[in-house]
Each structure stands twice: as structure tokens, then as C-alpha cells.
Amino acid sequence: xxxxxxxxxxxxxxxxxxxxxxxxxxxxxxxxxxxxxxxxxxxxxxxxxxxxxxxxxxxxxxxxxxxxxxxxxxxxxxxxxxxxxxxxxxxxxxxxxxxxxxxxxxxxxxxxxxxxxxxxxxxxxxxxxxxxxxxxxxxxxxxxxxxxxxxxxxxxxxxxxxxxxxxxxxxxxxxxxxxxxxxxxxxxxxxxxxxxxxxxxxxxxxxxxxxxxxxxxxxxxx
Length: 222
Hints:
alpha+beta, seven-stranded mixed beta sheet, four-stranded antiparallel beta sheet, 3 helices, 21% helix
């Protein structure tokens, strides 16, 4: 399963959220080690990894089932590291069933506030006791929506990063709240400002012309 690690391994979890246009949560996870045997001890290309934790499948079978959706898994070498890459794009209304998330966090949930039109991700505590020899887990969440609150360790642009190590495993918890309403781009804002300005000027020209006509009519009556 995703993120089951042994000694000497580190992991990186990347999540791209687009709840404005494509309405998807795209997961890309990596497990990395310098010793290929450590990778083989947790990954066998003959064993598929279901994407949804709610899938009804036989975990002892290396055979894929037609009614089960699986992560796209690739293994390769990059420099002195051996890597396994997991990838799957979830529709936003089913991300709360991600087997990758449920495998690593104890009480993951997504809370929707329809009145305020916001969404909050709360992973619950990290299952650190499952990974006694994990050296580091880096979590990057890139989001196109406007973020309202978070507890990330660092932020760069619209990417929020959490760094989990043995020193903070027992308190690690990911919180992210965002708006479901899109923000205008700078180009859209400038365009709307221009339209507003033109409408205002046209209105002012109308008032001036109307006042001028009334004045002329008054002079004629005299």
C-alpha cells in the first residue's frame, strides 16, 4: 500500500487540488531508498494498489479486478535513489476515500460548509507507529482555490508544505481550509474595472448632455 515504509526510506506526497474547474484531487506519492532491497521489501510490481480504501478486493491476490480502480505505479532509479511512484486523480467528491491518505492518517475527513461555501481538510493524527524507521515525510499541497487557513510549515506561491520527521510524528496533523469560490485574475479584475469606468463615463456624459439640452430649452422659452 502507499507509504508503507521500512528503514532508510523517505517519502514525498504531492496533492494538487482544483475545486474550481476540473474538481479533482490529484495524488502523486513517492517512496525512496538508496538500497533497492528496501524498495523490494515494500513493493512488488505484481501486486496492484487499489486507489479507494472502500474497494472490495482480495488483498492476497496479485490479480486486478475489473470493478476496482488502482493507482498507476512505476518503479525506477534516479541517481543513487531507487523510487516507486504512485499516481491517481480522484474526483473531488471521492477523495475522502483515498487509500493513500487513510493508510497514513488516523481520522481523515473533509468538512463542507455550504453556508460559507468553504471546504476544510483535516487528516487527523499521523500513523507514526506504522513507520518506526521512516526518516522523513514531505507533504506538498498545491491548490488553485483561495486558502483561508492552514498549519503548513512553509508556503511558496500556492504550494503548502508540511515536513514530518520522527521528532513531530506523534503530533503531525494536516489542516487546510479553502474557499469554493474562485478569485478573479489580475486580467479579469482590470477588465471589469475598465468596463465599470466606461459605464461611469457614459453616465456622466449623459448627465452633462441632458443638463445642456434642458438649459437650451429654458433659454428658448424665454
